[in-house]
Amino acid sequence: MSAPLPDRYQQLLVEIRAEIPGFRVIKKSQSPLHRAIHTALIAITFGRMRGYLSDYQTTIRKTVYVTDDWDDLDSDQRYVTMRHERIHLRQFRRFTTPVMAVLYLLVPLPMGMSYFRAHFEKAAYAESIRAAAELWGRGHVESESYRERLIGQFTGPAYGWMWPFRQNLETWYDSVLATLQVRVGKNA
Predict the structure, then answer these.
(1) Is residue 109 included in any domain, yes or no?
(2) Residue 28 · residue 65 · CB < 8 Å
(3) pLDDT tens-digit profile of 28-42?
(4) What range does the domain containing 155 cover?
(5) Which of 53, 68, 69, 154 is the most buried (most CB within 10 A)?
(6) SS3 of 174, please?
(7) Quick check: pTM over 0.85?
């Protein structure tokens, strides 16, 4: 009798640990830094970003900080999210923590027109789109609700209104869809 295969999320964690020595996953609420960031985000977004601790996973350096409900989320959802976060882990490795911090948070503006934040997030959200399409089919990522939720991340308060150019985002999204090679998943 053979041992059961690990689920794709657990397999992804094995791959990330091999690629990024020192990789770890920590609950965001256990971090004083992230509790402080949460409070600061509420202030600088005039109360519009209140879900930092409860709704968003965050990567800094080799650590992915997750919400308290992370372990209760469906394994496939954690897989899609961790594929996104793996892109950020690679970005931190490539650019270093100080360079990532300056580019992500400040260049050219901290809010409203944050070119590098949008650039880094486009790469990570493109991976989210690919992973979601692999699991749930192309129709899932082509749906208006999925598209709106994702584009809203760029144009709304979650990331400080990082990129207000909706047409640019629509074009980017369509370019990601055009590259999909979906062979597996529901509605494929």
Answers:
(1) yes
(2) yes
(3) 999 999 999 999 999
(4) 8-178
(5) 154
(6) helix
(7) yes
